[in-house]
Structures are given as structure tokens and as C-alpha cells.
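Inputs:
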Amino acid sequence: MARTIVPIGPYHPLQEEPEFFTLTVDGETVVAIDVQVGYNHRGIEKLSETKTFDQSTFVIERICGICSTSHPFAYTRAVEDIIPVEVPERAKFIRTIIAEGERLHSHLLWLGLAGHFLGYNTIYMWAWKLREEVLDVLEILSGNRNNYAMFKPGGVRRDIKAEDIPGVIKKLDSIVPTLTMLKNAVVDDPVLHARTKGIGILTKEEAVDFCALGPTSRASGVARDARKDSPYGAYDKVDWEMIVTHNGDVFDKVVLRILEMLESVKIMKACLTRLPKGDIDLNIKDIPPGEGIGHIEAPRGETFHYVRSDGTNRPARHKVRAPTFMNLPTYKATVVGETISDATIILAAIDPCYCCTERMAVRSTKGNLLGRGEDLIRLSQEKTEKMRRKMGR
Amino acid sequence: MDRNAVIEDIKKRFEADVTDVFDKSPKRVYIGIRPESIRRVAQYVLRDLGARFNIASGVDARGHMEILYHFTLEDINLLVSFRVILPKEKLEIDSLAPLFEGANWIEREMNELLGITFKGHPDMRRLLLPAEWPEGVYPLRCDYREWDKDAIRDRGV
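Outputs:
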């Protein structure tokens, strides 16, 4: 049988990190998939061993621009686990506020791109416009839109000013109606239903087998969230709900993320109104020999850091595991059996980080150039358009 | 079972395999086990105790190589790390990838970065390093020197 191979990547608009997918297709259907990563391997684990414990915080903050809270959060908790110490209450609340702000902007960014890939540019525009509001909130609180540099082992580096809080709460309140509108737009739209329901299903058993994390596994009915199971920060002090959906398809992942955003707003508001008084930093001077683990729930799932200290001022070993490391291999289970025009949104559904240069080529087995990255998105958008017309909308 | 019962249970069930138990804090426990028993222990913890595999951390501890297999028991909020010590002369251990998919990538990563062989791994290819990277050079080991021209740069990497 003649096999046609569709390469996606290494540089592709669906992915922030360069990854190279090889889709083997039979007609329109994907029959096999292989993933090759490592194009962006920067040796940060090794680099971290050459930095002091304080400097490492800044190095690992730059692992990912979108997860610039999750990695320092997990790392500082790992370092605090070595000693072991608990950070002051106020620092815990500030950490939680920043982490939830990050979840908000990360999910909005994803929602916008998912809308774009499906040919719903209105969702894209709304989501990204809304994301600006969230980035403004983060700028008021930390001074930066991204890479907040708020974390340090033992506490946080900047306090939240009391006079900023009312303005931030007002801004947070103002995004709730738009979020609700976006939710209704997705839940009520029959075309979006047709396009995403039953597509790219990850069953509960597969999610467990692949050790999938975060929204990817919660959409498959695995009720696991580090914020609930192993409470850290202020998550056990405020009321919020863990969102779980059960079908494991793209639709459930979209709905789950939107509902999670509403919870994030709730958590941020509760933390801001109940911000306790006190110190924000323990001023840790020495890290004793030993080992520590920090794991926190990032927007994409659990981020895991293991740090070993040998008593010097540098980590002897620093293991970093980002959630995508576990979520990425689930493509093997979700993409096989689907059509190429759906592959785009399934690949995007686990939320691998996006951005980067747009460069993709579809080649036939003889090596003839058939199309580029924009063609794949066009293919996906045309499918929605066709469905829309068929349903008379 | 609460956390103490789980630790006692593992100790008793794998009496010959457990070398030491370090009960660090209410949420963390480190259990040293013999390398040859990792697959049996992992199978029990995953299938019977319902744990989730977080990740494995390979550590070059100068004298020997260590692998820490981190498992989370979410219901009782306990993170169990199984510590396996491998002598530098014989860096070999059974692969967990045939047991569950989640161990596939991390074993490929440890293989290329630290030079540990995983017996029975279904798909041992490079994960992160490029194809041009020289064989037998393991960048995460302590003795790796990036400025060692003979090792890396003269080979055109």
C-alpha cells in the first residue's frame, strides 16, 4: 500500500516549541503518528547546576514565556521542601494570585488560537482582547506582562499594594461577562459541536496509561488537580471547584478550560479580598544538604521539580518536568483514526505552547511540495465553513 | 490505607527489595530499592495502590548513578520516591515502558543524557539530542565538559 507522509514542523504555527510530527496518512485518515522533539533543548537542567539557588529562579522562569509562574513556583517549593519551611501566609496568597492570573491568560491565549484554527476568528479576537485585560492586571500586580519575577525561595519579591486591589478587582469583574459570553458561544453553537464533539477522544484508561496531566486528563474524567490533591499556596483557604468533564474530546477540553477560567477569577478575587497582613519573605540564607520536590498545577497540568542540594550555594541536580512532556505522547492515542483536517485542532487541544516561525510543508512521497502551514489551517477552516453552510447558519 | 499503612505495606510486601526508608515529611517519603526489583514494585504501586507516575529523575552522584522514580498517591497526598542506585560500571535497569506508556519518554531521555540502559524498552531512540551528537557523550553527567574540544566541537556538533 502506498503510504503518504505528512510532516508537521519542526516550526509550525500550532506549536510554540519546535516539534516535528510525522503523520502517516491513508487518503484523509491518519494511520500512524510519530513525534520528534529536542529542537529547542537548551540544557537548562545542566545550566541550573551552575547557578546559585537564587539565580536559578530567574533561569527557570525563562523556560517558557507563558508558564513563567509555574516553573519558579514549583522550583521555590522544591527548595523550601529541602529545608523544610513554610512561607508566610501573605506570600502564599500573592503566589496564588499570580499563578491564577497566569492560568487565565494562558487559557485565553489557547482559546483564541483554537477558535482561529476552527475558522472562528471572532472567538480569537474576543479571547485575545480579553487577554490584554488579564495582562494589565498582572502588570499592575507585578510590574510585568510576562516573566513576573515575583518568586524567590522563601517568599515573593514584591508586595501587592493595598491601593491597587480595588482597581484589580474591578478589572476582574469586568472580564466575567465576556467569559460567560464566550462560554455560551461555544456551548450553544451547533457548528462548533459538530466540529469538536467526538473528535480526538482520549479515554480515561489512556489518560491514566500515558500519565496525562491537567486539562488533558481532567477532560477525560480523571479528577486530579494538584491544587486540590496536594494543596499549596492559598488553594485550601479559598472556595473553588475542580472542573472535570468526561468525554475526552476536543469539545470537552474547550469547555473545561473556559469553566476553569471562571474559577480562576473567583480564586483571584477571594485571595485579593482576604490578603492577610505580614511578611512576604523568610530571608532564607543557607540551603542545607538534602533533596526536595515541588509540584504545582500549571495551566497545562502538573509541573514537577526535583532539586538536590549538597550544602553548597548551587543545586547539585535540578530536574524539571513540564506538563507537556507527559501530555504530548497522548497524540498517539488521539490523532490516529482521525482526518488530517481534524489533526490540527487535536494537536492543539492539549495546549502545547504556541508561537514561533510559520514553516510547514506537506510533501507527497515523491517529495513534491503540496502545501504549507497556512494550507493546513485553511483546510481546517474550510471544513467548518462547509459544515456551517450545510447546517444553514 | 493511610500514609503510614502504605509505607508499612510496601516495606513488608517487598522486604527483600527495600534497602532503606527515609520518611522525610508528612507528604514525602524516599524508599531505596534494589535495581532488579523496580518493575515489580512499580507494578504494585501503579496497579494495586492506584498511584500516578510523576517522572523519574536520573542523578549522577559522582560515585554512582541514581534514579528516583516519583509516584504520587493523590488520595492520601503522599509523594513516594523510589531510589535505585546503579554502579557506574553497570548502568542497566529494567524498563518500565512495557508496563505503561508514561515511562516511555523519560527513559529515552535518561538513556541519552546519562547513558543508562533500559532493558526491554520498546522504542529506544534519541529524544532530545540531535542525530549528529557523538555516541557515548552524555551531557548531563558530572564529568561532561562542554569546552572539551575533542569530545564535541571537533566532531562537528
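Remarks. The longest strand of chain B covers residues 64-73. The helical segments of chain B are 3-13, 38-48, 104-114.
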